[in-house]
Structure formats: C-alpha cells, structure tokens
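Hey, I'm writing a tutorial for new members on how sequence and structure tokens pair up, and I'd like a real worked example in the thread rather than a made-up one. If someone can provide the structure for the chain below, I'll link this post from the tutorial.
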Amino acid sequence: MLLGKKRKLGRRIEEISIGEKLSITEKVEDKDLLLYLGLTDDANPLYIQHDYASQTPFEKPMVPTIMLTGMITSAVSKYLPGPGSHIIKQEIEFKKPVYHYEKVELLFEVIEVNSAKHFISLKINGLNEQGDTVIKGTLKVCPPYRLMDIHSEALENF
C-alpha cells in the first residue's frame, strides 16, 4: 500500500519549457517480442515467421508497431514529463519497419506548453541504426498535477 510513502512524480507543467529534448535508445530483443506475443496471443506471421516474412517486401520479421508505441508511452511515463503524466492524444506514423534486434533511437521535443489547458505537445522522431526515420509523430500529454498535502481529511474516503 502506498499510504505514508513518498511518491516520486514527474515534472509539473510549470517546470517544462518549449525546446526541451529527450533521447532514448531501445533495442528489441527476443524476450520482449515473446512476452508481447504471448500476452496478446498475436500470431501474426509477419512478426514471428522468417519463412513467411522473407517472401514479403519486408524480407524479415518486423517488430509490432504497438510495441514501438509502448516504448514511446514508457518514455513519457518515465522521463518526459514522467510519473503521473497521461497521454491524451497521439498521432504516430510508422515510416519504415523496425526489425528484430534493431536499435531504435527515439527523439522527443517539447513543441507546446499550454498551462491554461494543462497539456504539453511533444514531437517524436524515431531513427533506426542506419539513421533512417522509422517513426514520426506528435503526442499531447497531461503532465502530473500538483498534489495536495495528505492529512486526516484526505483519508476520510478510505
């Protein structure tokens, strides 16, 4: 239970400014793919069958786009703005496939801070190891809210 424990939240809207950037690099490993495919019961041959994928224009198995989206949402939850934030809207285009064992560099940039409506906008650019753009998009994110001090009155609903 979290009562009485300090909660580390991400940055509040007044601590974020236009032009801030974040770069993270993720590598897609077999364990990640197997966990995703097992949890979702997704047996798309384009994701797991080398013989099938080799006969398509993709030439080899690719990473499911929802896994790439998960990397993006994870970066928002962990780093920018961080814990307590929430994605309100996302527009993501997958320009090229990402293949198994490939590294993806995700570049985030704050392009809008709207204090009145309590959201920020982030531009995303994802690059593969060759420097090709594989992901492009924007996110509208609600940063963590300032919390009130917890005292006896706040606990009456529990």
